[in-house]
Amino acid sequence: xxxxxxxxxxxxxxxxxxxxxxxxxxxxxxxxxxxxxxxxxxxxxxxxxxxxxxxxxxxxxxxxxxxxxxxxxxxxxxxxxxxxxxxxxxxxxxxxxxxxxxxxxxxxxxxxxxxxxxxxxxxxxxxxxxxxxxxxxxxxxxxxxxxxxxxxxxxxxxxxxxxxxxxxxxxxxxxxxxxxxxxxxxxxxxxxxxxxxxxxxxxxxxxxxxxxxxxxxxxxxxxxxxxxxxxxxxxxxxxxxxxxxxxxxxxxxxxxxxxxxxxxxxxxxxxxxxxx
Length: 276
Hints:
Elements: H1 2-62, H2 66-103, H3 105-108, E1 112-115, E2 118-122, H4 149-154, H5 172-188, E3 212-213, H6 215-219, H7 222-229, H8 233-242, E4 244-245, E5 256-258, H9 259-269
Antiparallel strand pairs: 1-2, 3-5, 4-5
């Protein structure tokens, strides 16, 4: 057993010596190869330097072609810019505008509501209805971006815009505004209790231009509208139903009522748009 282990040890030492010897030989061969490659590269670099020096001397004597190189350099960027300008800035908008005018011209022109040949609003933008015969929409921090001449003259006209004040729930200004809206609504709708007022009638939308309210907000105003318009409850409920939009694809969003369209139908029933 001892002799066996001794022989194994000798063989291991022999293999180790051979391995070390081979590594040393490979190392020196690699060094020689690298030196040879370096010499070749050095000669190539020297040759290239001579050629560059020759060309530089020739250019300095002949004036060179700097302007030619400059124009060649900007030719492609200029052409790309020109093509993108024509395609993205002219052709693309014209094509989309043409397609939209053919396929859905009403939406492309702002979904305007036309009565007797006159635009009275857009189905996409709410309005502030102050007449007691009409349904009320949501509060708007920008007054639905509508102002009268006196507002503009007094400096209250903020210009075209949308948005909300983003008050915190504890902000005194928000508390004051909500309480004023509650008082005004209860005064106009005496049969409704404070706790029955839907939230969206007291909260402004993010844009301040939302033309919709919830079906619940429309329903709580029916009794007051019956009294102010003289129309029957069934008639008003039918008008609301006809202007109620369901969920998108039956899944997304909530049911909404377009206040402008409801009030337009009420005005028609009252004969306010009859031609003279």
